[in-house]
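All the exercises in this workshop are built on plain-text protein records. A learned vocabulary of local backbone shapes supplies the integers on the structure line. Once this layout is familiar, the rest of the handout is easier to follow. An example says more than a description, so a record of this kind follows:
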Amino acid sequence: MDYKIIDIKSTHYDDPKAGGLSFFEAERDVPFPIRRMYWIYDAEKGTHRGFHAHTLNWQLLFCPHGSIDLILDDGKSRETVTLDDPAKGLVLTPGLWREMIWNETGSILCVAASEYYDPEEYIRDYDEFIAYRKKKDSMENEKK
């Protein structure tokens, strides 16, 4: 499956009351230019969102507060990745179906995206996604 868990650069101050600081830089720590940032918040525990794939968009997802499960599907298998550490990020390549489940009320999901919002590059129907993956996988196999 084509995703990567990355360590987000983080530091904690000598005074534990001061907390920590995490950051990343486009095209250095993240393998794409960032054209859009957005975040999802105020969702209740058990909220299930996503249900789509992208044809062009690379994304870095991270959870600065709480815990969120990402169910990833490449058309052949499904894997679950839990984001529950603000110093961990998940880089998703185009062509992965994703679903998100909030494990805690108040969890925040942040997304850095390689593309501006374009509803035409979303695949929101699972059967269309499977057809897209079969075609994409067939083209990749022909190149080998």
About this structure: The chain has one domain: 3-8+30-138. The helical segments are 126-143. The mean pLDDT is 94. Residues 126-143 form the longest helix (18 residues).
